[in-house]
Every structure is written in structure tokens, then in C-alpha cells.
Amino acid sequence: MAGPGRGVTIADVAARAGVAASTVSYVLSGKRSISPETADRVMQAVADLGYHPHAGARSLASRRAGVIAMMLPLRDGMHLPVLMQFASGAVTEARRHDQDVLLMTADEGPAGLSRVAASAIVDGLILMDVEVRDPRVETLRRLGLPSVLIGFPADAEGLTCVDLDFTAAGRVCADYLAERGCGDIALLGASEAVYARRTGFAERVREGFLGRSGARAEVWPCPDEAVSVQRTVKELLAANPALTGLAVHNEPAVGHVMHALADAGKRVGEDFHVVVIGPDEVAERVHPQLPSVLVPAETLAETAVRHLMRKLDGLEVPDSTLVEPQLTVR
Amino acid sequence: MAGPGRGVTIADVAARAGVAASTVSYVLSGKRSISPETADRVMQAVADLGYHPHAGARSLASRRAGVIAMMLPLRDGMHLPVLMQFASGAVTEARRHDQDVLLMTADEGPAGLSRVAASAIVDGLILMDVEVRDPRVETLRRLGLPSVLIGFPADAEGLTCVDLDFTAAGRVCADYLAERGCGDIALLGASEAVYARRTGFAERVREGFLGRSGARAEVWPCPDEAVSVQRTVKELLAANPALTGLAVHNEPAVGHVMHALADAGKRVGEDFHVVVIGPDEVAERVHPQLPSVLVPAETLAETAVRHLMRKLDGLEVPDSTLVEPQLTVR
DNA sequence: AAAGGCCGTCGAAGCGCTTCGATGATGGGG
DNA sequence: CCCCATCATCGAAGCGCTTCGACGGCCTTT
Q: Which residues of B touch A229 (CB under 8 A)?
């Protein structure tokens, strides 16, 4: 049962257990040894009263807020479901460490980082979808706020970064197509805008893909909307009639690509092969279902949170963590 | 420029401006009148030092955390992009009111609500995707924590609820199909599980749909996966060969439905009409693009936050707010 | 049997802020 | 010309917690 009225304080708990407030604090934090009998009495009082320490008071006294921030990108081109998986994965993992998660958007930019750092509202932060040249990175370095980045900026010196090994993902796709006997293959990527922004992952996929498949591969940026996708695919097939394999790294486009291929008389899974880099749903929603390499959003989020927790505890973490891609064949 | 070292306090600002700490506080909060000259000097010092009040200290002293919680459902059947839009809409609006947003998941359940209420870590909360019988509602009432629900529980007495007018949405779809001259029509809904859970919105859509279209309509639950969708559509067409109109209230199924209809020889947009209740992308991603009624997630989130802010300020808000559905014809 | 250690507990000092009451300084009315 | 509002500002008292040093007991150790 949760307590009845508002404002159960540590003093109330102490009174009910017949001890000093500091003793209650030590029982709860375990920072000094307390006799089992006393501890029991305290815990009982805590339960009886439904006591939860006042977060503000605790943060003030201990200089630990018990909250981490998560800054989400809200630019277009971002795939919302993946972000959501990130967010929920992070919250779930954070709660395991008794931390809460504050949600911020990238709109707040560097100033937002300064704000949360200075107000001590969070102990650390996770920055998602970091770009190659990201203005927040410099601020972050200056603030010295413990943080973990998801993605890799150009200069990762002194930062902790976590990401899917996109280069390997590109390689895996190229290999898959090669195994299926595809000679000429192509990578259909995100929209021009994404490349223009020099988004790290897009470039790394390209490198992995090209690096593995040599001269017989090419990379085409690709817009998201139905009509443009159809056109792009048509042009691609026209430009290289010998094409028999395609990797698609553009989630919203997958459905349209399949249509365009069907229109062009390609029988996917038979004389033509397609592999997707993206969430399972996307690869499953089309017919035939496609093999795919997914962005393991939850795993990345968990890893990021775990690393951040270690940093907050003053422990070592690797500067760079690359999660291996898994190809799911359907 | 943000300040150099850590821990700029109000005392530092006061010293630099040559005033008392309390004066700085009053300048910042505007709760007492301060001469323009003094105020200027204070603001200058604040800017020079990059001062941001310590959130914990502020919350302790003022009993206002400046943070609201948002509890997201993470059950399956929930559509992730929509949740994300909610979350980002809420954060954006909250920041306009100088509030931060703490993210919680529904896994924490009622205990989570007790926790955040007792620890005073947030001032209020927004509960998403409330079900007809929701265990959190009772706790919420008991805690008396200011809150706004998105969705309607069975007993909304004394609660503030916001939602899309799903009944109207069902009606709008039925009307659209009627206008297109469809006689026999059907609503393809969410999976059985969603109905079994008695999710409010699913039921309300059904009511609106049936209420408008009389005896010539029917409602079929529908699973999400490709194969089951195809089967369901086939059965539906077999059961009612005269069917010429379909409303689909199941986002992941839309693509498969279109396929199944094509397989059955129906020419959508010509001798058969389909309307979607769901996000724009879903209706746009298929061919032909479909008319749709979207869940205006951002609007709902903004409204919810705005209402919550008013409640925190002790102002009145309507108990129940229904947002009108908009049909987008493509 | 006295001295030293350790264990379990307590009290008090602050963390940085808001807010209340008090205090000069100023100015208008009698 | 004095008194009393009014205005701008100050000082001090907490908010609820953590943490540091202190202090009795009790058990070893000599």
C-alpha cells in the first residue's frame, strides 16, 4: 500500500523506526553498516509509510539526480519506430539502474546541453544519431558531462560512442547478394539529404558495401516518396540492365521498390535478389518477405545506458563499441 | 558563452550583480517588483556566468520540479511512430512552458505512479493510451497528482481526458464510403487482442462506423501479419460478395489488404473504395494512395501538455476534450 | 584489568534555492 | 514639516536529504 497523504519524509520514517534520520539514509544507501535488526525496522517503516526520498532534496545533498537525459533527433529522414525502440530500450535499462530518463529533442541543440548540465537536472546524457560534424559534440566536451553517443562524429577523441557496425552491415548485404549469385549489384540508400548531411551511418554502409563487392556495385541515393522511388528504380535498372541484386537502406522506400521491380518484370527471390537494412516489420510487410539486417535499437540503447552508468560510477568503458549486424533470412 | 567551471550558484550571480541572493531569485521569478536597473544588472550577471538554477534545490525550496512525466504504453499492437510523435509533440510543447519531460513506460504501472508522485520528481503527468479498465486510473485518483489522460477510461469522473473523436472518425469513414456510392461496407479493425483488451478507441470507431451505416456494414477484427490479413480479406469478400467499400483501422495491415484486394480483382479507387484510419505515411505508401483519417498525435500531445500546465497553475480545464477527425482525400 | 579498535548509531552541518517578514529610502497628504 | 504608505531590497529560515565527525558500548589484545 502506498502511503496516504503527501510528504512522507525521512524524518517520519526515522520516527516510526525509532532511529535517527541519518540511520535511515544509511540503511537505504548501504553506505555504512547497520545492524540487521535496525535495518529491518527501518525497511518496515519505509514500506508502511510508502516512503520515497524526495528527488530534489536527494539531488541537492548528494549531487546525483538519478536521472539521465536522452536527446532524440527529430529531423526528417529519421525513422520514428526505431527512435521509439531506442527510447523505450533506454528507459527500461535505466530503470534497472534506478534511474529515470529525461527526454530532450535535438532542437535544443548545444544550449540545451548547457542547460541540463548547469541545472544539474541530469547526471549524464545519451546523444542519439550523432552526425559526422555535430555542433553538440564540442559543447559536450567542454561541459565534461558524462555522456554516451549513439553514432560516431568525425572526431571521437575522448568520447564514448556506440553504434551498429554499419560498415559490416554493408558488407553482409554485399556478401548475401554475392552468395545468391548476383554479379552486378547496387545499394539503394537514403535520400540525398541524408548523404549531404554526411550522416555517418549512410557513408559507412556504402563503404562496406562497395569495399566488399568491388567494381560491380554502385550506390544510388533514393527519395522516400512512392513516385520518386519508382522513377529511381526504373533509372537504376535502365542504367544497368545486368543488375540482379539490390540492397535497400531506406525503410519507407522498400514497398515501392518491390512494386517497381515487379513492374519491371523482376521476380524477387528468383532471378533477382533484394536485401533490406532496416527494421523487421519493413522486411516482413512486403511480399515476398525479404532478408534483412536490422538496426538493433534496443540493444544499442541498453548498451549506451549501461556504459553511461559505468561512467557515472567512475568505471572504465571502451571508447568505441560496434555492435555486429545480424542478417535474418526469411 | 556558457560559464567555465561547474556550479555557478545564485550566490555567485548575486555577488557579481552586487545584490542579495533573494533579489536574484525575485528578478528571475518576477514574484516581486525589482527596479529595472537592478534587474538589468542581475540579468547581465546571469548571462555572463551562464547561470542556470540548480533543479534539485529549486524543486526542494519551491515544491515545483519543473518536470512532467509522460507514461508511454509499450504493449504490442501499439503503433510506434504515433507514440513517437506524441512524445516529441509533448516535449516540444513542454519546453515552451519551461518544463522538461520524464519518460516512463507503462510497465511501471501504478507503482511507478506512486513512486514519481512521492518522490516529487515530477509535478504532473500525462498518461497515454488509457484503456477502458485501466488499473493506473484508480491510483492516479488516489494520489491526486495533476494529470491528463490521452484516451478515456470507463469512469472518467474527475479526470481530464483528451482524445481524437474516434466515434466521429468511424462516422467520417462510413460517410466517405457512402458518398462514393458504396452500399455494403465493412470495417477491418485491429487484432482480436485489441478488442479483447477493450481498448476504448477501437470500440468507439466501430460504434461510429456502424451507427452511421446501419445494417449494411460489418466489423471484422484483423491480425497484423501478411498471411492472416490476406486470409481475412478473402473471407470477408467471400462472406459478402456485394462489398464495395472498406475502412481499414489497422496500420500494418494496409499494405496487405491492398494486395489481397488486387488479387481478388478489385480495382481500388474505381469499383471498390478503401479508406484508412491511421498515419499519413501508411495511406501514402500504398498504390493507389488512399484517403485517410489520421490520429493527430502532435495536436493531442500539445493539447494534453497545455491542459496539464493549466492545471498546475490552478486554472480550469475541460474534463473532456475531443479532437475532430480530418479526412484527407488523396 | 586497562588500553585500544571496531561497530552501530547519532547529531549537525550544509547542498542551493524560494519565500516571508523586516528594513531603509522615498514621496505624498495633512 | 512630520507621519505613514509604498517600493525596492535584504537577511534568515527552512525545504528534505546526505555525509562527516563523534561517541558510547563491547570485544580483543596485552
A: none
Q: Which nucleotide is nearest to A26 (CA to C1')?
A: D18
| Kind of pairing between the strands at A217-220 and A184-188 | parallel
| CATH number, domain B67-159+298-328 | 3.40.50.2300
Mean pLDDT of B185-214: 80
Which grid cell sits at A95?
Answer: 530503470
pLDDT tens track for B249-298: 988 788 889 888 988 999 999 999 999 998 887 888 787 889 999 989 99
Q: Is the CB of B79 under 7 A from strand C?
A: no
**Helix-then-strand count for chain B, H and E:** 14, 12
| Residue extents of the structural domains in chain A | 10-53, 67-164+298-325, 166-293
- B114-147 core/surface letters (b: 16 or more CB in 10 A; e: else): bbbbbbbbbbbbbbbbbbbebebbebbeebebbb
Judged by C1' against the alpha carbon of B26, the nearest nucleotide is C18
Provide the edge-to-edge strand list for the sheet that holds B327-328.
B217-220, B184-188, B243-248, B273-277, B292-293, B327-328
At the second CATH level, the architecture of A10-53 is: Orthogonal Bundle (1.10)
Is the domain defined by A166-293 classed in CATH 3.40.50.2300? yes
Alpha-carbon span A189 to A184, nearest angstrom: 16
Mean pLDDT value across residues A130-144 = 90
Residue type for position B187: L
The β-bridge partners of A164 are A323
Instruction: Give the closest residue to B85 by CA, choosing from B326, B300, B322, B282.
Output: B300
| B62 contact residues in A (CB cutoff 8 A) | none
> What are the distances in angstroms from CA B158 to CA B138, B143, B162?
11, 13, 13
Express each pLDDT in B101-121 by its tens digit.
999 999 999 999 999 999 999
How does pLDDT run across A188-245, given as a tens digit for each residue?
988 777 766 656 788 889 889 998 866 567 778 777 777 788 888 999 999 999 999 9
Q: Which helix (H) or strand (E) holds A127?
A: strand A124-127
Look at B105 and A85 and tell me if their CB atoms are within 8 Å.
Answer: no
Name the grid cell of A102: 529525461
Separation between Cα atoms, residue B221 and residue B233, nearest integer Å: 11
Does nucleic acid strand D have an atom less than 7 angstroms from the CB of A35? no
Q: What percent of chain A has pLDDT over 90?
A: 65
